[in-house]
Here is the input.
Amino acid sequence: MSEPSYPEDLRYHPEHDWARIDGGEATLGITWYAQDALGEVVFYDGPEVGAEVSKDQPYAEVESVKAVSDVIAPLSGEVIAVNESLADAPEAVNADPYETGWMVKIRLSEPSEVDSLLDSASYAASLE
Amino acid sequence: MSSATLTETPQQAERAETIYEKSVPGRRAAQLPPSGVGETPIEELIPAGLLRETPAELPEVSEPEIIRHYNRLSRRNFDLDTGFYPLGSCTMKYNPRLNERVAALPGNARLHPAAEPEDAQGALELMYLLQESLGEICGLPHVSLQPSAGSQGELAGLLLTRAYHADRGRNPRKVLTPDTAHGTNPASVTMAGYEVVKVATNEDGGVDIDDLRSKVDEDVACLMLTNPNTLGVFDSNIVEIAGLVHDAGGLLYYDGANLNAIMGQARPGDMGFDIVHVNLHKSFSQPHGGGGPGAGPIAVSDRVEPFIPRPQVVRVADGEGGWKYDLDEDRPKSIGRMRGFQGNFGVFVRSYAYILSLGGDGLSEASRLAVLNANYLKQRLSEGRAGKYLPVGFDRHCMHEFVLSGAPMKKQLGIRTLDLAKRLLDFGFHPPTVYFPLLVDEALMVEPVETESKEVLDSFADAIEKILEEAERDPAIATEAPYTTPVRRLDEVAASRNPVIRQPKPE
Here is the structure.
């Protein structure tokens, strides 16, 4: 994915993370901007199923040829699924950050936190 | 000049062979005469469990092959003796040949590391005097030469921090580092068993005092700071910062990576720091890069002194009205040894030769010129295309280095900072540090050092202008660079994902 893209059905955290809300659950990942700034991702180190993640706190690490960076949780909850394929193919984070490059799925512990996230237009505006 | 005509790299016709591929069974570089003394079977000298069952597979080559092999490799290298090397935060200054002459004197070069102190008085005296000099430069009186790299100096400093607090019955768990810190700082903190807490940077490029205030509490063991920091900015709030940390019972650690900016101008001890490490291989002209031996001595305040590594080089009365030098092992509160033997002695010799040949005034002039060179080059790069595509990250007077952002270049020209860095190689320059510090997008961190002339700085600025002008016409010239190096663009992604760190055995 070479052009910036911020799907309208997602919610965004200022630390360049997205969340796809589905009832009391959410799928998390990093945005097009984040993967572009990182460059090609060579390693992904994420949490295991059952781990707790807290809003605004790191829950995973991505390593590119430039740097190792924390991935910040946009919402709080318990990890109920992880993207196992990223261990062998972390390049999916660059190729398709919103679909095959997803990182974890969580069960929300504080659903009201969703209200504090940005919509696509506000997030894109914050990048200008 | 179009990119198509540049893609051939003549040197690539000859792939570099490893020394193992040159090996021929039975070939020797030296024929040793029969031993003049009786031989003792190795089995009698070394326990059976430590002996190899099969001989080590060492390369078997003749002396001319060895000489040619390593000379050829050295010509494929880029080093300070080849060209300008403005690698930010690395202080790649010229290595005076005088230092090499002194280090090569047989009394220095051939000293056995296991020599008894009474047989190594000259070496111990040099180490003692180097300790005294570094203590004076840092404004902290007690120096240990044991840590052998900046990173090991950091680890030693954190172990000292732990010992200092434990001696007071305390066990704070957090160490603060600014978000501009060198990557080794958080790594050392973690290795020492502490928790890293990051402190934000204010709009001037210094420590955000309000953020610091909100994070300093009794659980803070230490604040690690580089001043000037990796943005090349001197934090003039340092006395207030030191007060905040000290009032909460914490120590202040000075990362000496950027000492070249302030040598002879200001002393970390006077700013309130308790522990400093000094990179002799940066500020004091020991050759480095490519893993050459370094040294990261630490200087500490009186209250930290009881804990410094042992043995310590000391001067004691010889009972005849003079002095003698010794290794003091009797330090009950010491954190212990940081390494075997007494350190990289050749580094001590070169650094002490450097300090003596420049003198106090010379060291202070060196740091002034380092700052002048950085500000001159920053000004040159604020003009023309560089000023348009590569703005300064934090625009104020810098110290010994400055950081540019390649973000506009990436957006408007379609070339990244990495591409610019690779193209600089074709102009005969080592690229600056790239993608660090992380808080500047597409960062390019330039440290020109004091030993470069105005002509060199001008030619570097001209090369950047030329590369940007090329990119306006054809971005591929930069994105496919370099063209003239022994190998072309390396596949960094493949190297990270599938590193080949062992040469396969030749068939």
